[in-house]
Amino acid sequence: MTSPAPRKIIHIDMDAFFASVEQRDDPSLRGLPVAVGGRAARGVVAAASYEARAFGVRSALPSVTALRRCPDLVFVKPRFEVYKAVSRQIHAIFAEFTPLIQPLSLDEAYLDVTANLAGLPTAWATAKAIRARIREETGLTASAGISYNKFLAKLASDHRKPDGQFAVTPDMGAAWVETLPVARFHGVGPVTARKMERLGIVTGADLRAQSIDFLRANFGSAADWYFHIARGEDDRPVNPDRVRKSSGSETTFHHDLTEDEEIEAGVQRMADDVWAWCAKAQAFGRTVTVKVKYGDFQQITRSQTVAGAIDSHAALSETARALIRSVLPTPKGIRLVGVTVSNFPAAEGATLPLFEARQS
């Protein structure tokens, strides 16, 4: 029996999408460090231009921190209706080349172009044509990763940013993965990357050297995923019908907390993370859940469902703070808090990956 031909997957990622739209529409912003978001004390950066990123400004960063890093930062109020309209233009372009489109957010998607509608001979040529159409239609730039699976395509799209493309072919995939830091791998967030580093796993080669038993002992249910991606393997198809059901973020503290203000601040940071996702994906749920894990590993949750979508940062923060206050003062130290938004309307199709638990 012969093996099936490799898939041809493209991961398209718009370059600093929200900020680039603002710089496109207001020429006076071009070349300046721009942050899309609120400048208020509890504001959060939804997106940052490349000029701002040079100062360490990034999405989900509190606005006060962003200003400390870049005092000349220019804040612009988000215009989500404009971003959604541009996103519809971009997805219409995708549909000229393939019906197999899996959106990850307004500015990011996987495309399976194994049989592309334009009849182009290679995935490389298809990605180039898509990026040219996006520039022609919207005046914006996109980067592309091309490979035989989704994991490698997503890694590759970062390799020539901005306004570039990079291909990982079947004969180079496994070896290429070995050269990369595991912190870049999709599914390996900051907490897991630090844990891997403590175990001597810094590169893809280090990860590949571990047995599946070792990975399961240290990483539980995620072990099989790490085992396969270390070998450049990912069987997930591009799924146009995948719908996101929730978005959450949680943090484990360096030491158990007992002070109300510190615990609330931790919940607020998690709400900031989740709101950054909601704003980018334009997906707004009706249910907020706060998770608490005590120092003895007892775990409780508190949830609230509202009549309409929670469609502002202030509303999410207020709800999350009210929920954590319902368990304060705490009878014992708290080691972890988390915030999740769920109960999205059925029409929402946002599919950004979950924020990973992090340590603060």
UniProtKB/TrEMBL annotation:
<keyword id="KW-0239">DNA-directed DNA polymerase</keyword>
<keyword id="KW-0515">Mutator protein</keyword>
<dbReference type="InterPro" id="IPR036775">
    <property type="entry name" value="DNA_pol_Y-fam_lit_finger_sf"/>
</dbReference>
<feature type="active site">
    <location>
        <position position="108"/>
    </location>
</feature>
<comment type="subunit">
    <text>Monomer.</text>
</comment>
<keyword id="KW-0479">Metal-binding</keyword>
<dbReference type="InterPro" id="IPR043128">
    <property type="entry name" value="Rev_trsase/Diguanyl_cyclase"/>
</dbReference>
<feature type="domain" description="UmuC">
    <location>
        <begin position="9"/>
        <end position="189"/>
    </location>
</feature>
<dbReference type="InterPro" id="IPR001126">
    <property type="entry name" value="UmuC"/>
</dbReference>
<dbReference type="InterPro" id="IPR022880">
    <property type="entry name" value="DNApol_IV"/>
</dbReference>
<keyword id="KW-0548">Nucleotidyltransferase</keyword>
<dbReference type="GO" id="GO:0003887">
    <property type="term" value="F:DNA-directed DNA polymerase activity"/>
</dbReference>
<keyword id="KW-0963">Cytoplasm</keyword>
<keyword id="KW-0808">Transferase</keyword>
<dbReference type="InterPro" id="IPR050116">
    <property type="entry name" value="DNA_polymerase-Y"/>
</dbReference>
<protein>
    <recommendedName>
        <fullName>DNA polymerase IV</fullName>
        <ecNumber>2.7.7.7</ecNumber>
    </recommendedName>
</protein>
<feature type="site" description="Substrate discrimination">
    <location>
        <position position="18"/>
    </location>
</feature>
<comment type="function">
    <text>Poorly processive, error-prone DNA polymerase involved in untargeted mutagenesis. Copies undamaged DNA at stalled replication forks, which arise in vivo from mismatched or misaligned primer ends. These misaligned primers can be extended by PolIV. Exhibits no 3'-5' exonuclease (proofreading) activity. May be involved in translesional synthesis, in conjunction with the beta clamp from PolIII.</text>
</comment>
<comment type="similarity">
    <text>Belongs to the DNA polymerase type-Y family.</text>
</comment>
<dbReference type="Pfam" id="PF00817">
    <property type="entry name" value="IMS"/>
</dbReference>
<dbReference type="InterPro" id="IPR043502">
    <property type="entry name" value="DNA/RNA_pol_sf"/>
</dbReference>
<feature type="binding site">
    <location>
        <position position="13"/>
    </location>
    <ligand>
        <name>Mg(2+)</name>
    </ligand>
</feature>
<keyword id="KW-0227">DNA damage</keyword>
<feature type="binding site">
    <location>
        <position position="107"/>
    </location>
    <ligand>
        <name>Mg(2+)</name>
    </ligand>
</feature>
<keyword id="KW-0235">DNA replication</keyword>
<keyword id="KW-0238">DNA-binding</keyword>
<dbReference type="InterPro" id="IPR017961">
    <property type="entry name" value="DNA_pol_Y-fam_little_finger"/>
</dbReference>
<dbReference type="Pfam" id="PF11799">
    <property type="entry name" value="IMS_C"/>
</dbReference>
<keyword id="KW-0460">Magnesium</keyword>
<keyword id="KW-0234">DNA repair</keyword>
